[in-house]
Backbone:
């Protein structure tokens, strides 16, 4: 397969079939030609700002049309689009802007206060593009509407050597951008783009355009319910556009399942992206209450989150739906294994190893996946370049062993001998809550900055809907009186809401070892017992 660049493919589709719908929202439908025109205007503005190959431009934006036009404009210039979580506070936004060396930021007016504080005094300065969503104007920002009105064109071809930077923390311990080479990204996504609809991947750009505009190609209409800053929502959206499909956007910072379901029916959605039970559970409850089922939806994708058999069963009952659970997908590479079910009769899903996924023994040598074989999951297919600006973490997370370069998130598995595995657990302490990765060290640092706290440890406790809930066990400072409501208010100005501990347990000591280590299993068991006792008293 010759190099096929997303930007060149989307532009080829716009030329070959300009009236084809590319984006649909509650308010409007955008054709591929209109999509290209808006992206071209943004590309012209970014060029005027000096943005080009190897630069970075950031998005602090929920799933809006402007997200995709800005994203495409970046790809067309060879600039890396960097999505920042729109729930971050100003300090968190600034830290990522500095980390990725962004020179431009697009954000909605509703986040004007966060943006203003985040970019204040940055050197070099960050140019701000504001998207009007009802908030007051952002001082010093250029409005998106003015940029589009001024017009402009996309480059004829996107430059080689560009990258895509996707922030993650599953294996890094702190937010870092995974750098994927755009020249090989579509090659890495052959199966998830063309294979999933039963089409042989194209050999070159012209063939890809023909497939996308061929009336015989299955029409893919995708609604990503999680924010597109998440890897699977972003990659599935990009793949949908590569197929000449339509991306349906729920243009709201918070999930409204009733509005989302209305979009499913109004736009004949065929593919849904969810984030495990955190999104799928309230959505299927809305579907059941609605009573019309999901007759046109043929596939549902989820990754990196607990997706229970009960919720899958309820979704299967709503139509003829294939559910693909990429439980072990990661931004650093993979997916390592996936579970696919086409009906409730196939539950529970068996986690099947993907091509390129291997088991490594304790000596880090590859071992055959025979029945009972125990090892560390690793992937050695097409991998990202590494972490932006962090060669040390890159070397640690992408080790070269023998003839191969691997990525190893830290999951142990036991092979069943038929290509499937039993997942045994992740060594990482990262808390995965509702699809968001929370780094305990960051939350512990915020807790320990409070004058009334002497010691703290942060961990995840099981939660039915969100998979895990951020929790903390703390030791008050000597003679200090700790007010938990005041502590919550204190953290509110320092951490995004989903990072704040939902359960706080107070102990006289954390019983650290002489080397300062904490037996986390004991701490979590202690916390779980307290919660269980509280539940018994309530009931």
Residues:
């Amino acid at each position: 397969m010759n190099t096929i660049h997303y930007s060149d493919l989307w532009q080829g589709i716009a030329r070959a079939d300009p009236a084809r719908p590319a984006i649909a929202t509650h308010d409007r439908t955008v054709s591929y030609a209109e999509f290209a025109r808006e992206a071209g205007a943004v590309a012209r503005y970014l060029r005027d700002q000096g943005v080009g190959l190897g630069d970075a431009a950031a998005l602090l934006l929920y799933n809006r049309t402007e997200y995709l036009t800005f994203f495409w404009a970046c790809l067309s210039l060879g600039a890396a689009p960097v999505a920042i979580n729109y729930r971050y506070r100003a300090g968190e936004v600034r830290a990522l802007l500095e980390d990725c060396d962004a020179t431009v930021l697009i954000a909605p007016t509703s986040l004007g206060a966060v943006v203003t504080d985040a970019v204040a005094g940055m050197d070099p300065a960050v140019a701000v593009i504001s998207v009007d969503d009802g908030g007051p104007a952002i001082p010093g920002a250029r409005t998106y509407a003015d940029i589009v009105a001024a017009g402009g064109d996309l480059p004829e071809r996107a430059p080689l050597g560009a990258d895509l930077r996707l922030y993650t923390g599953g294996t890094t311990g702190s937010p870092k951008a995974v750098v994927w080479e755009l020249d090989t990204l579509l090659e890495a996504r052959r199966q998830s783009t063309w294979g999933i609809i039963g089409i042989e991947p194209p050999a070159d750009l012209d063939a890809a355009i023909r497939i996308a505009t061929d009336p015989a190609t299955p029409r893919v209409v995708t609604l990503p319910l999680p924010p597109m800053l998440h890897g699977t929502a972003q990659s599935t959206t990009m793949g949908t556009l590569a197929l000449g499909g339509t991306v349906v956007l729920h243009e709201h910072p918070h999930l409204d399942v009733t509005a989302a379901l209305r979009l499913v029916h109004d736009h004949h959605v065929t593919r849904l992206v969810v984030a495990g039970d955190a999104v799928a559970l309230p959505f299927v409850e809305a579907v059941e209450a609605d009573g019309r089922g999901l007759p046109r939806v043929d596939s549902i994708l989820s990754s990196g989150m607990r997706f229970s058999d009960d919720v899958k069963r309820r979704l299967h009952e709503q139509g003829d739906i294939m559910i693909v659970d990429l439980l072990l997908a990661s931004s650093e590479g993979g997916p390592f294994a996936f579970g696919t079910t086409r009906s409730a009769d196939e539950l529970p899903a068996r986690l099947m190893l993907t091509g390129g996924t291997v088991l490594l023994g304790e000596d880090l040598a590859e071992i055959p996946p025979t029945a009972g074989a125990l090892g560390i999951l690793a992937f050695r297919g097409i991998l990202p370049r590494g972490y932006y600006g962090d060669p040390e973490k890159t070397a640690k997370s992408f080790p070269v062993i023998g003839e191969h370069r691997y990525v190893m998130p830290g999951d142990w598995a036991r092979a069943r001998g038929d290509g499937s595995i039993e997942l045994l657990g992740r060594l990482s302490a990262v808390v995965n809550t509702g699809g968001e990765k929370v780094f305990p060290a960051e939350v512990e640092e915020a807790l320990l900055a409070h004058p009334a706290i002497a010691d703290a440890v942060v961990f995840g406790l099981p939660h039915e809907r969100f998979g895990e809930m951020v929790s903390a066990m703390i030791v008050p400072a000597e003679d200090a009186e700790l007010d938990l409501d005041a502590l919550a208010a204190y953290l509110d100005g320092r951490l995004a809401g989903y990072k704040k501990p939902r359960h706080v347990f107070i102990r006289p000591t954390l019983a650290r070892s002489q080397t300062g280590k904490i037996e986390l299993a004991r701490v979590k068991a202690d916390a779980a017992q307290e919660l269980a006792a509280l539940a018994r008293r309530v009931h």
Summary: DSSP finds 17 helices and 29 strands in the chain. The first helix runs from residue 6 to 16. The mean pLDDT is 92.
